[in-house]
Amino acid sequence: MDSPAAGSGAAEHASPPDDVSALPLFQECFRTLADSIERVLKGKRSAVELALTALFAEGHLLLEDVPGTGKTTLARALAASLGADCRRVQFTPDLLPSDITGVSVFRQNSGTFEFLPGPVFAHIVVADEINRASPKTQSALLEVMEERRVTVDGVAQPVPHPFMVIATQNPVDMAGTYPLPEAQLDRFLMRLSLGYPDHASEVTVAGGGPDIAVAEQLPVIATARHIDEFARFVRTRVHAAEPVVDYAVRIAAATRTSPLVRLGAGPRGSVALVRAARVRAAAAGRTYAVPDDVKALAPAVLTHRLLLTPDAELAETTASDIVASVLADVPAPRPVRQTTPARV
User: Fold this and answer.
1) What is the DSSP track for 86-130?
2) Distance between CA 196 and CA 67 in Å, rounded?
3) Contact indicator for 219, 35 with CB cutoff of 8 Å
4) Is the pLDDT of residue 211 over 70?
5) How high is the mean pLDDT of the chain?
6) Cα–Cα 20 to 30 A to 87, which of 79, 165, 179, 292?
7) Exposure letters 36-55 (e unless 16+ CB within 10 A, then b)
8) How confident is the model over 185-198, as pLDDT tens digits?
9) Beta strands in the chain (DSSP E)
10) Minimum mean pLDDT among 41-50, 170-179, 294-303: which range?
11) Domains, the chain, ranges and CATH?
12) How many percent of the chain have pLDDT more than 70?
């Protein structure tokens, strides 16, 4: 199989990664994508790798942070690095659901209705400032984020595969915004906060040196078909043993029993945790997930699924504090040691 990271020409002729021999190719693709995106988003390697983990886990990504930290830049850089159809939607209060999903138009010459697809019919959909649209418009994404299809006038229209929504929102300027409901937050596999860059990275960005790339000018590292094939490889060839899955489920269940939580992570959270752990394992060169994969990903996968009690909010306890406490309290499974039979 030709490496997708070798460029768009080689990517065109790659064969499906059906066996474990594709693991080095996946690692190369993952690393090259991260290196390319980091040319635009300086000093945020961890966040870039988490975004790629969400991509290969076939999940959606919510980027939440203050203005100017690179939320939209990360989304644009990720889309530019993939030879995939990408659409960006600026969410505003006057945006309608049909502006996202599409609409059926009556053609008088044929006497029939024709469906005109909206921007959601793309491989990567960037929903910029998603919390500035009304709840009615936000709900237009509920079906497509879960079922990969849009129902218009009673007809289900499938979206391209792979499909990923990358949404951004600003948690500080809340005037005129509509917080996402729990049902929609639960559909995001991860929520990331980029934070401010370190001093050296900010100096590099502010100086505008020659090594600073523009998101739209990044080279295509992998096609949509590669992403689909590698996602299938991770889903079918990277193993999560029963103790690891049990550990992920126990972590999610522990968030539901915390006295500081009104609503904990549901089954979708534990499923997302295992899917993301498989991708992290493959990126590390393993065909099996370990408890450390689950532990490392739990904050990004679970915090946005928790609804805290008023007492917890008054005490300024955060969802991150709850997840950290759960990880400290829930014991990880111990590795099984292989013993050799004693000689007689």
Assistant:
1) EEEEE--TT--THHHHEEEEEETTTTEEEEEE-TTSSSEEEEETG
2) 10
3) no
4) no
5) 85
6) 179
7) bbbbbbbbbeebbbbbbbbb
8) 999 999 988 777 77
9) 61-64, 82-83, 86-90, 102-107, 112-117, 124-128, 149-152, 155-158, 164-169, 190-192, 222-223, 261-263, 307-308
10) 170-179
11) 1-96+122-207+218-237 (3.40.50.300), 239-333 (1.10.8.80)
12) 85
Which tokens belong to 145?
Answer: 């984020």
d(CA 285, CA 20): 10
pLDDT of residue 100: 93
pLDDT tens digit string along 48-68? 999 999 999 999 999 987 776
List 63's β-bridge partners, or say none: 168, 192
Q: Under a CB-based contact definition with an 8 Å cutoff, are residues 264 and 257 in contact? A: yes
Nearest in space to 16 (alpha carbons), one of 31, 34, 4, 33: 4
Q: Which residue do the tokens 């079906």 mark? A: 143
Buried b (16+ CB within 10 A) or exposed e, 195-222: eebeeeeeebbeeeeeeebebeebebbb
**What are 180's two structure tokens?**
């996402």
